[in-house]
Specification:
It is built from 8 helices and 9 strands. With about 270 residues, it is α/β, with parallel strands linked by helices. The longest helix is centred in the last third of the chain and has 18 residues. It is globular, with a radius of gyration of 21 Å. About 35% of the residues are buried. Bound molecules: uracil. The site of uracil (URA) has 10 residues, from loops.
């Protein structure tokens, strides 16, 4: 379905039919669509891309067998088995698999701190590692500010594949990828999870609230304390004292909960 808008014209709502016919706001006449499909409406935002079709999922969301949690098996090999299982099961993202490789996660399989973003981007796909691009450099700085190294933590994403056509993530994606995130958390058993940015926070917490409301407030995911904060890419775009201060405040909360030494005030 072709859906389009033109924010350049200052038009904030355009109705577009499947065949591309458009109706301006205030036009009370019915759209004369040549298609029998219903008309969709959306609000235009500058630089926004047209919404894309949702991914077609088939079957039922995955169930991870108990054998993946056998504690006699080292955590690292349990994670590796889980990764193989996810790679095999992901024919559910029908449009996605051939051109979007899976990025599973990396770091200490016994970490007490886990960072979770939304989904891999181009750089991550190229390197097969989460947060491998500029946002990753900023994330490394955040981790260092906490007195840790990247190797000390575990980093992953709510979705292990970038959604088709780079469209925004949807709750339906998390129905399919979420069981793997839950399994990663169950195997690693971190003391604290930091969720990076609004899309990941919304997926994981199932919340309609934006990151500005969610950040800085403790939540819980499968009995693990969880702190949402701004995404490092947002920090890169908005490196103001205020935003940096908010992220640092959130990270200090996490440090306190983990018993990590806070830097002396100076
Ligand atoms: N942004 C994310 O949310 N995850 C990544 O891995 C990289 C960028």
């Amino acid at each position: 379905m072709a859906v389009r808008t033109d924010a350049m014209l200052g038009i904030d709502l355009i109705l577009v039919t499947d065949d591309g016919a458009a109706q301006m706001p205030g036009d009370s006449s019915e759209i004369q669509s040549r298609s029998s499909e219903p008309v969709r409406a959306f609000t235009a935002q500058s630089h926004s891309k047209p919404p894309r079709e949702s991914t077609r999922h088939v079957g039922t969301p995955p169930v991870i067998p108990d054998s993946f949690f056998d504690e006699h098996e080292p955590q690292a090999s349990r994670l590796s088995n889980l990764q193989d299982h996810h790679a095999r099961s992901c024919s559910n993202l029908l449009d996605n698999v051939p051109d979007h490789p899976m990025v599973f996660g990396e770091g200490d399989s016994n970490a007490s701190l886990m960072f979770i973003g939304e989904a891999p981007g181009t750089e991550e796909e190229r390197h097969g590692r989460p947060f491998a691009g500029r946002a990753g450099v900023k994330l490394d700085e955040m981790i260092k500010a906490m007195g840790l190294q990247r190797e000390d933590v575990y980093i992953t994403n709510a979705l292990k594949f970038r959604p088709p056509g780079n469209r925004p993530s949807e709750p339906g994606d998390f129905e399919w990828c979420g069981p793997y995130l839950a399994a990663q958390v169950r195997i690693i058993r971190p003391d604290v999870i930091v969720v990076l940015g609004g899309p990941a926070s919304k997926l994981i917490l199932g919340s309609p609230l934006g990151i500005t409301s969610l950040r800085g407030k403790w939540a819980s995911y499968n009995d693990v304390d969880l702190m949402p904060t701004f995404h490092p890419a947002y920090l890169l775009r908005n490196p103001t004292l205020e935003v940096r201060g908010q992220v640092w405040k959130d990270l200090q909360e996490v440090m306190k909960r983990l018993g990590l030494p806070l830097p002396a005030r100076g």
